[in-house]
Design a protein that fits this description.
Layout: E1 16-20, H1 25-36, E2 40-45, H2 48-87, H3 91-109, H4 114-117, E3 119-124, H5 130-143, E4 149-152, H6 171-191, E5 198-202, H7 220-225, H8 229-250, E6 257-261, H9 270-274
Pfam families: adh_short
Keywords: Oxidoreductase
InterPro entries: NAD(P)-bd_dom_sf, SDR_fam
């Protein structure tokens, strides 16, 4: 359950990024990676206590990493300059190397303090409520001029209860599919203001076990008579993939690209915590 790190080191400095369900697991690692690349990252979560803690931990870890990288860079620079000075044949070269060392040190010490360099914020978002999704979108659009990246990562898996949300939908269907696509549509005006807007939806391999009944696409009839949490989860993820394809086609002539990914099993996610012995 380990994978390769992203092979490029591209930066997204000052881009506005929203990651839902970013207080743990996949979402947390996504948020940390994008914050480390210079993005202003918003952790959109239902558990605000966990989200605020995650934001603080991300900033602390990135600051430590930055300071460690600076220390290594300074040591390398000092070693290189000392070597050049030792091999110099006259005092002029020695003076030049001393100046170079001073300038290098000055450049490394400039810029924002480490604790101010990374911007990670927690915001409340409950995908079990369409009203809350609309409120979240209104607040975000009022605060920011644009949105560059929206990552619909939050979801529920294998919820044993058949209880519907306050909006009347099965939990997997609303949290994994309906609410994220409502959020995407509400934020479209701001995503279109970005030069390269991105919408990324997280799916799962289990979508392959689901079948879509287009006479009852929301499976309202099926869940009324026969409900199983694994089937409900698989159905919701198949819906995510189909809707992603549709949205990508609808937005093909805009600056926004829409993609779907299946990350596989990741430690820290809820479905692994539910399994015995993991």
């Amino acid at each position: 359950m380990s994978g390769q790190r992203c092979p490029n080191d591209n930066h997204i400095r000052d881009q506005i990024v929203i990651v839902t369900g970013a207080n743990t697991g996949i979402g947390y690692e996504i948020a940390k990676a994008l914050a480390g690349r210079g993005g202003r990252v918003i952790l959109a979560c239902r558990n605000m206590e966990a989200a605020e803690k995650a934001a603080a931990v991300i900033k602390r870890e990135l600051c430590c990493q930055l300071l460690n990288d600076k220390s290594k860079s300074k040591q390398k620079s000092t070693t290189t300059n000392n070597s050049e000075s030792a091999n110099a044949s006259d005092n002029t070269n020695t003076t030049t190397n001393t100046t170079t060392t001073t300038n290098t040190t000055t450049r490394n010490d400039t810029g924002p303090a480490p604790n101010q360099r990374f911007c990670v914020e927690a915001r409340y978002l409950d995908l079990r409520s369409f009203d809350n999704v609309r409120r979240f979108a209104r607040n975000i659009m009022a605060e920011f001029e644009r949105i560059d990246i929206l990552i619909n990562n939050a979801g529920v898996i294998f919820e044993p209860s058949k209880e519907n949300t306050t909006d009347g939908f099965e939990q997997h269907l609303q949290v994994n599919y309906l609410a994220p696509f409502l959020l995407s549509h509400l934020l479209l005006p701001h995503l279109k203001k970005s030069e390269n807007g991105r919408i990324i939806n997280v799916s799962a391999h289990s979508h392959a076990s689901a079948k879509m009944d287009f006479d009852d696409p929301l499976n309202m009839g099926m869940w009324a008579s026969k409900f199983h949490p694994r089937d409900a989860f698989a159905h919701s993820k198949l819906a995510v993939i189909l809707a992603t394809r549709w949205m990508a086609k609808e937005l093909k002539d805009t600056s926004i690209t829409v993609n779907c990914c299946t990350p596989g099993l990741v430690r820290g996610t809820s479905h692994l915590r539910r399994e015995q012995g993991i």
